[in-house]
Design brief:
Elements: H1 10-29, E1 36-37, H2 39-51, E2 69-74, H3 78-95, H4 111-118, H5 127-133, E3 139-145, E4 153-159, H6 169-180
Helix pairs in contact: 1-3, 1-6, 3-5
Length: 182
């Protein structure tokens, strides 16, 4: 914990704050509310970011946390990459117009939606985008790690439930900076 390339290092904590700011900015641009920061989802994101040290990009899937959805990115600025999937979503909606109403409010029981976000059956992958802009979400956590095959990895988790103990991004940033400057 706290090792130079670990998700808990000072440099990587600072990088994750920028990612959180970018996530809220991207959400605001499409009319989705800014999310609060969950210490629990942040811890999960740190664990999952450090899990990427084994190589590749993998969802650990060893926990279940209140309907959390996870995005993982490696080797590039995550928010920009995930937002590029908006074009895929638009193409998927052109293919199946019944998807249009699900852009900001997912329905995992709808097989066409699941296929579209996962990029199955002729659809283009759009799940990172729809996870990022999901209007049901209330809280998020994010972590950055600099020790995998791609140079670095970023993990984003968001949930619509259990916002107890969550902080505004400003509060979280202040807390992290106070801790780093102690």
């Amino acid at each position: 914990m706290g090792a130079a390339k670990d998700a808990t290092s000072a440099a990587n904590l600072k990088a994750s704050i920028q990612d959180l700011e970018n996530a809220n900015s991207a959400r605001a641009k499409v009319g989705s509310r800014r999310l609060k920061v969950s210490p629990i989802l942040t811890a999960i994101s740190m664990i999952d970011a450090d899990y990427q040290k084994q190589g590749g990009v993998h969802h650990p899937q060893y926990y279940k946390y209140e309907d959390s959805l996870e995005n993982i990115s490696a080797g590039s600025e995550p928010i920009t990459i995930w937002m590029t999937e908006k074009n895929n979503w638009k193409e998927d909606v052109r293919k199946n117009s019944s998807l249009k109403s699900l852009e900001f409010h997912p329905n995992w029981d709808n097989q066409a939606y699941t296929d579209a976000v996962m990029g199955a059956h002729g659809y283009k992958v759009a799940g990172h985008y729809t996870n990022l802009v999901n209007r049901n979400h209330r809280i998020m956590g994010m972590a950055h790690m600099t020790d995998n095959n791609y140079g670095y990895a970023d993990v984003y988790n968001a949930s619509s439930k259990n916002n107890k103990g969550s902080l505004t991004l400003g509060q979280y940033k202040s807390l992290v900076n106070r801790w780093l400057n102690r």
